[in-house]
Amino acid sequence: MRPPRFQRVVFLAAVVVHLFTAWYSTGYQSADEHFQIIAFAQTKLGELPVEHLPWEYDAGIRSSLQPWIAVQVFRAAELVGIKDPFTRTFLLRLLTAALAMIAVRGFVRATLDQVSVDLWKPYILLSYFLWFSPFLHVRFSSESWAGIFLLFGFAPLIQRTVELEPRRPVKMLWTGIAFGIAILCRPPVGLIVISALFWLAFVGKLRWNGIVLVLGGSAAVAIAGYALDSAFYDRSVFSLWEYVHMGFAGDPDHRFDELPWYYYSPWVVKYAIPPIGACLLLALTLLIWKRPKHLLVWCFVPFFVAHTFIPHKELRFLFPLADLTPLLLVLGFVELRTLVPGNSWRTAGRLVLVILTFANLLGLSVILTSPAGIGRTVLAKTLHAVQPAAGSRISYVIEPMLSWRISLPAFYLPAHMTDSAFTMEQYAGGNLNTEYLVARTPDAELLQSRSGQHLEALARTETVWTEQLMRWYTWNEGPEPWTLFRVTK
Known about the structure:
This protein is mainly alpha-helical and 489 residues long. It is built from 20 helices and 5 strands. It has a 5-stranded mixed beta sheet.
């Protein structure tokens, strides 16, 4: 028995939610999402000089798959007269959301038999509406695409009905292709794929010819990736090999921040919203203890442990696992329920459910209506609306070497506009010599008093409401939002 009507209703609601998120979640969450995909595509389209690209381009460590897709989407958009950056990137988010919806739907259908009947509906709801899922489902980033194609690959492997019938060769070949694409998008997920292959061999009891088909599908994708990379970089390049080589050999010219080994667990609790983050770690612990042979354990643990001991840490490195967390939460709850005798857990369980639901709705309300990252595209949209005169300048009050943290990439700037950055210490007084200024409110007030010029606030990176929520979300660590000012005499 399955709840087809409920699934259809939830899926349609999820489509609406993802459309809203794709529209409002403008910009990019991490610098790589823009500078190593959109900027790469711009170069191929002749919109951006190669010398403006980050060092990863010369190193050849970035797969060209997503930049090539962006190139084709932008070309198709131009054919119908779409040239503004906001609609172009919306199309990329829409494409990502469509792939994510198909992948999640297939994965839920494949794994529903693993879940207790009384938990089917919560599992389906979590799969589409766990608060960070719609946000990640619209990101045209390497982490999100890797996670989406991992789902495509996992669906045939984890399906219980497969144990009752021979695994079809086509399914195994598709699994290999999906895994290969995931690795191209984000090479470190290769560790998840290797773990899945070991699970297939020793737990799933897949015959050797099935393993060969999976490996063959991935190898075919790798060959295609080499061809795409060589065409994109205009030289013989295999980005996957270059990435792995640099990962082991290191790059003395580029040093990354290093953090202690234990950082990921507190980060998961904090940034997944504490009640939900704590449940994620508890569910993984219970599954490791009670069901150590489950595919999720084999995939989560090696990937998490390996990243724990890699000195450079970013929360986005764990994003490829995000779409597996609804199943993890439900299976963890099943194991927790077996440990608590009788009905003694029900009262406390209802209270916990209310807290988790409230936290999840709060997170959803923010990601549904907020731009990604620090919200700089809100400033860009306002700039385009006011139509700056040719030759206008926009300046950022920040250390010039760190200006990338807030500055608008050329992709989002109105045509014929220049930019610069300076610190308060570098400002010697007098006219600001800029038509537009991006600064935090205290700096802007000080500059206005010193220069004698009027600073008219045009837009902020966050609304008052989302600012308060973000302060709560970051435990009051988040800096004050940036504001775009028009400078007048």
